[in-house]
């Protein structure tokens, strides 16, 4: 019996694990096609089937493999979003694709003018989505779309929730009831900006007192600013409310978020953004963010000041890109001014990483930015000057190298001339030695001949002596002539050899000497 209870306990524990896994079952694409390809023939019938129609108006993909893979990733995100939204009970939500090249007629019918954008058709409104194309972010945004454009604050607990919202523009009004014409005008204005701007209303005098609101009065709250601005001219028409919001929809400090990424980035001032990076969950980042809020509140009346706060934790995939592009370290807070066209930037120099700049120091730096004393375009001018200096240095180096080469060539020429002179002198000396050797050999031969002649004189008659003397003279003359001819030939050969190869002269001269000796013998 005890073993039966043990077995039952084990089975129940497995059941608990299974329930826990199912409760955290993150959706995965099941492979079913739910996204529609909209064209001129089917777009009306498809859009009528849904309460909310999400349309991705994309560029024509073409033959590029990279573009095809990118589009496949986007289409997969849309398929997963459609799969998740299919389970909603309140609204039927459909998703469709429109190719900017193949389906121009459909885009024209629906008044779509911006490619690679997502449009949400809900009731009588067309809402443009300017955020990341991910299933998570898109579904979250669609949840906001299908909510009521105005949220009613009925008690103090809901009022605390209202005060906790500080990252978005928000409006709150006090009206007699939901049937009030002034509330209806407020509600109509809300539909124009929903869900980008938060609208709240109360019919409770107690809540209105806490908000310091009078009947039919509307307060406008900037992000991160505690004190609101009372919209003048109550009671308001829809048009008056819309105009006021449009004139004040660029806050002094606003947060870049995944769902408004492109909307905020495109809303620059004279082509530039003041950007502050700070992690809210980091002590240094939190401290720096509080300083930013103080600066924003002190300068909320300045229409030319708008600071974009980016929490790196919200965009982990972009952190390496930002660090490389802006040449900054995002492990700590940073603030700088960025040119939106070429991403040139200048960042505030924080000398002490442990101590954040004071609000006064930050205001001074921002004032320099607004006055143009801190300008990312100046970096371009400095780079151009550096390039010019580098070119000048290169030219100088080339000139110096040319001069050195000329000097080296002159030295080489002088050395060659000296070598030639030395070689010529050596050749002359060799020739003189050859002549002296030849003369000595001739003299020795003459002496030997004379001795032989003397011996013959003793043995023979005087006539024979005369004949021998004549013969010796003739022989001597012949020998002298041969020696002179050989010397002339040797001189000519030596001159020719000097022109061809200086190193071979000595060998040729030695060979000539040997030949002369052989001839003389």
From TrEMBL:
GO cellular component terms listed in the entry, alphabetical order: sarcoplasmic reticulum lumen; Z disc
Subcellular location: Sarcoplasmic reticulum lumen
Pfam families registered for this protein in UniProt: Calsequestrin
Keyword list, A-Z: Calcium, Glycoprotein, Muscle protein, Sarcoplasmic reticulum, Signal
Keyword Metal-binding (UniProt): no
GO molecular function terms listed in the Swiss-Prot or TrEMBL record: calcium ion binding
Gene Ontology annotations of biological process type: regulation of skeletal muscle contraction by regulation of release of sequestered calcium ion
Keyword Signal among UniProt keywords: yes
SUPFAM superfamilies referenced in this protein's UniProt entry, alphabetically: Thioredoxin-like
Function recorded in the entry: Calsequestrin is a high-capacity, moderate affinity, calcium-binding protein and thus acts as an internal calcium store in muscle.
Protein name: Calsequestrin
């Amino acid at each position: 019996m005890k073993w039966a209870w043990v077995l039952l306990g084990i089975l129940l524990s497995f059941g608990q694990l299974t329930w826990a896994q199912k409760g955290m079952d993150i959706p995965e694409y099941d492979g079913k096609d739910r996204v529609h390809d909209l064209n001129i023939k089917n777009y009306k019938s498809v859009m009528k089937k849904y309460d909310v129609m999400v349309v991705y108006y994309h560029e024509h993909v073409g033959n590029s493999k990279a573009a095809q893979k990118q589009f496949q990733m986007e289409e997969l995100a849309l398929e997963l979003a459609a799969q998740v939204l299919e389970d909603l009970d309140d609204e039927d939500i459909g998703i469709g694709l429109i190719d900017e090249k193949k389906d121009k007629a459909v885009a024209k019918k629906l008044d779509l003018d911006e490619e690679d954008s997502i449009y949400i058709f809900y009731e009588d409104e067309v809402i443009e989505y300017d955020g990341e194309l991910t299933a998570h972010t898109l579904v979250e945004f669609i949840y906001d779309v299908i909510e009521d454009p105005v949220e009613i604050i009925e008690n103090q607990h809901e009022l605390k929730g209202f005060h906790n919202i500080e990252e978005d523009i928000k409006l709150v009004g006090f009206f007699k009831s939901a049937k009030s014409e002034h509330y209806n005008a407020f509600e109509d204005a809300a539909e124009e900006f929903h869900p980008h701007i938060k609208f709240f209303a109360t019919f409770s005098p107690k809540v209105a007192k806490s908000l310091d609101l009078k009947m039919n009065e509307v307060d406008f709250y900037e992000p991160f600013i505690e004190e609101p601005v009372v919209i003048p001219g109550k009671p308001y028409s829809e048009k008056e409310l819309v105009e006021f919001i449009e004139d004040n929809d660029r806050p002094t400090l606003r947060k870049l978020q995944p769902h408004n990424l492109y909307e905020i980035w495109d809303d620059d001032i004279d082509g530039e953004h003041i950007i502050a990076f700070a992690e809210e969950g980091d002590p240094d980042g939190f401290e720096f963010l509080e300083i930013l809020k103080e600066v924003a509140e002190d300068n909320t009346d300045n229409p030319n000041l708008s600071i974009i706060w980016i929490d790196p934790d919200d965009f982990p995939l972009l952190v390496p890109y930002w660090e490389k592009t802006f040449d900054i370290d995002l492990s700590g807070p940073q603030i700088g001014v960025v040119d939106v066209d070429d991403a040139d930037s200048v960042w505030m120099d924080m000398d002490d990483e442990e101590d954040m700049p004071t609000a006064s120091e930050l205001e001074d730096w921002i004032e320099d930015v607004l006055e143009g004393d801190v300008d990312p375009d100046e970096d371009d001018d400095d780079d151009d000057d550096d390039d010019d200096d580098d070119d000048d240095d290169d030219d100088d180096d080339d000139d110096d190298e040319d001069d050195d080469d000329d000097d080296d060539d002159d030295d080489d020429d002088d050395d060659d001339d000296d070598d030639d002179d030395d070689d010529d002198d050596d050749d002359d000396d060799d020739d003189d030695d050859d002549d002296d050797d030849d003369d000595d050999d001739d003299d020795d031969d003459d002496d030997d001949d004379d001795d032989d002649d003397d011996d013959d004189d003793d043995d023979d008659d005087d006539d024979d002596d005369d004949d021998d003397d004549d013969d010796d003279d003739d022989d001597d003359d012949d020998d002298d002539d041969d020696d002179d001819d050989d010397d002339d030939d040797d001189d000519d050969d030596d001159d020719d050899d000097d022109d061809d190869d200086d190193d071979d002269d000595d060998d040729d001269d030695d060979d000539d000497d040997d030949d002369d000796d052989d001839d003389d013998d």
